[in-house]
Amino acid sequence: MRKVSIFGATGSIGQNTIDLIARDPGAYDVVALTGGGNITQLAQDARRLGADIAVTAFEDRLGDLRAALAGSGVQAAAGQAALIEAAARPADWVMSAIVGAAGLAPGIEALKQGATLALANKETLVCAGPLVLETAQRHNARLLPVDSEHSAVFQALVGEDIAAVERVIITASGGAFRDWPLVDLATATVEQASSHPNWNMGQRITIDSASMFNKALEVIETKEYFGVDPANIEVLVHPESTVHALVGFQDGAMMAHLGAPDMRHAIGYALHWPERRDLPVERLDLAKLGQLRFHTPDEARYPALRLAREVMQRGGLSGAIFNAAKERALDHFIGRRIGFLDMADAVAAVLERFEAADGLVDAPLTLDNVQQTDHLTRQWIDETVLQRAG
Ligand code: NDP
To answer: Domain segments of the chain: what residues?
Structure first.
């Protein structure tokens, strides 16, 4: 039996992963399931799958988790140290699906154990790409992409020489405001930003799709994972969300990956890799679909894409700063303290402030430095938001 752990088990990706695993009883030995505040879901899945341990990230929820697991034989634990301890438990395959920079440390710990890390948490590569890749290499661990675009590129590259790649194109649905006039974006509400035209995902990534911060993170993830020159990474708006990515080769050929917008495809591919297995996803009917549209995104509408390019050029800790600034600005948008367009303004302001603070961006890329920078960035976003409100 394959030993598997799922970090972020109660979220959208986590639940889709559990759906696949639960369809194959007897094939998996579930080591750890982790979640945040959704104790009921965490305990229910830990019982159902017979996990060794269930961990909530929040220490003050340990009592609730213990009560929910009473009599099940599943161990309960809570807090950051418990997450790391769970990641250190031997497992063959680990799903990294915590949302945000909180996913970085458990992912690195799983790689240190030599596990195959299925990476939905794009923030891991955005914040600390070189560190993560080097850790995987040192511990003979494997990193498999789960983001649909990166899984698509990975699949398009099977049997190909990366040196023959001329460009990589990742697609974007354009999110909730794709067809809105630019002037209306300033007053867009949290509810409006939280509905995605094609994908059913967690709230944070759905809002990040509307602002294209999600795509901005994915462009950086593409650079880090595949080692593609940023100048050769393109984004196209593709309203049908059917072509997830395309790889263009030196001879002019392009390999596209198509699939229904269902994350169980990319999760299942990473779960069964290098094999392909039958997956419970919709089969595409291209004749019914009729047309596939593509256009270049307008950077005035999506400043996050321009910021991502600056971050890739800057390197160092700027990815960690960009991500933390984006996460904290999103907290403020969800908390209704800033408007939709203020998120990119606040992120840009904090990136500039770091640039002016000598040496901070160029500190060595260690987990400690990433975490300290993450902390400081969030403080500076709070200050920026406060200043603007006052
Ligand atoms: P969700 O918000 O649906 O789930 C997030 C998970 O992380 C939940 O289990 C949540 O617990 C847990 N969590 C929340 N805060 C913390 C914390 N501070 N520490 C530890 N765990 C925490 O997110 P998604 O499933 O949508 O996304 C997960 C990751 O996958 C993200 O990085 C996202 O960008 C990426 N991704 C998601 C896709 C999707 O289709 N959803 C597609 C591609 C990538 P709880 O709910 O119990 O509070």
So the answer is: 2-145, 150-262, 315-389
